[in-house]
């Protein structure tokens, strides 16, 4: 369903500048004034590894028009987790997304407003459960719910690792991944949602717990989406906290 404008103020719209009329490619989440968290596979093509290929929109709602409160930044640096080469994201025709995470340093800090605010990082030992209030958001493709030009949200309760292991098989790693989704049809991440956040309300504070990586038909977020009984898979932020903080400290 369509989100209310300003309800997810950390959402980042990652656009490739040379794609017209709109270069939306992936989502991301603002985690402080100058850093955005996203998925590594958004940058697997040689051209997308170049910082000057990107334009980052924050505080926007409709990706085809400029919204009140919208701020635009460019990219100073892209940091792929452990500088993983693109080839590792596909092995023997199957996706290997164990470390599908990236950091983007903006060329200038954003100004915090009602439309642009950072999301909190989780505590390292946070235990997630199916009763947590969790949502995925993005501008990705939709099926049956109207145009994806506006930011959408989907309720995404945490699913058990046992269930996800059965649906996904060996490519699912509970140590590095989170399985989430309502299991209802037409309600999941899809092409264009990659890198977008999975956020949960924990002790009345919204925190990012994952970034969108792939759907459980095994094809990545470009495959069939929103199938009944098919949750989505997110890279787990908790196990990457040390790396995130090291990179921010190193390059700030």
Automatic annotation (TrEMBL):
UniProt-listed Gene3D superfamilies: Trypsin-like serine proteases
Keyword Protein transport: no
Domain of life: Eukaryota
InterPro entries: Peptidase_S1_PA (IPR009003), Peptidase_S1_PA_chymotrypsin (IPR043504), Peptidase_S1A (IPR001314), Trypsin_dom (IPR001254), TRYPSIN_HIS (IPR018114), TRYPSIN_SER (IPR033116)
Alphabetically ordered keywords of this record: Disulfide bond, Hydrolase, Protease, Serine protease
Record bears the keyword Signal: no
Pfam families given in the database record: Trypsin
Boundaries of every Peptidase S1 domain copy: 1-249
Single GO term (MF): serine-type endopeptidase activity
GO-annotated biological processes: proteolysis
Protein name: Peptidase S1 domain-containing protein
The species this protein was found in: Larinioides sclopetarius
């Amino acid at each position: 369903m369509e989100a209310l404008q300003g309800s997810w103020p950390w959402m980042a719209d990652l656009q490739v500048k040379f794609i017209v009329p709109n270069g939306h490619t992936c989502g991301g989440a603002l985690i402080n004034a100058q850093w955005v968290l996203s998925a590594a596979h958004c940058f697997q093509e040689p051209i997308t590894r170049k910082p000057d290929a990107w334009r980052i929109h924050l505080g926007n709602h409709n990706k085809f028009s400029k919204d009140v409160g919208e701020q635009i930044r460019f990219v100073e640096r892209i940091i792929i987790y452990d500088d993983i080469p693109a080839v590792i994201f596909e092995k023997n025709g199957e996706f290997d997304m164990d470390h599908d995470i990236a950091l983007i340093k903006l060329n200038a800090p954003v100004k915090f407003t009602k439309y642009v605010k950072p999301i909190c990082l989780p505590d390292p030992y946070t235990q997630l459960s199916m009763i947590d209030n969790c949502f995925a958001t993005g501008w990705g493709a939709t099926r049956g719910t109207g145009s994806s030009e506006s930011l959408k949200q989907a309720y995404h309760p945490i699913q058990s690792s046992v269930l996800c292991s059965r649906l996904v098989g060996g490519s699912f790693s509970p140590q590095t991944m989170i399985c989430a989704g309502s299991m209802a049809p037409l309600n999941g991440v899809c092409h264009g949602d990659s890198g977008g956040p999975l956020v949960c309300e924990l002790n009345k504070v919204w925190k990012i717990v994952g970034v969108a990586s792939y759907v459980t038909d095994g094809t990545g977020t470009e495959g069939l989406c929103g199938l009944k009984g098919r949750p989505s898979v997110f890279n787990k932020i908790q196990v990457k906290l040390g790396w995130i903080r090291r990179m921010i400290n190193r390059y700030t």
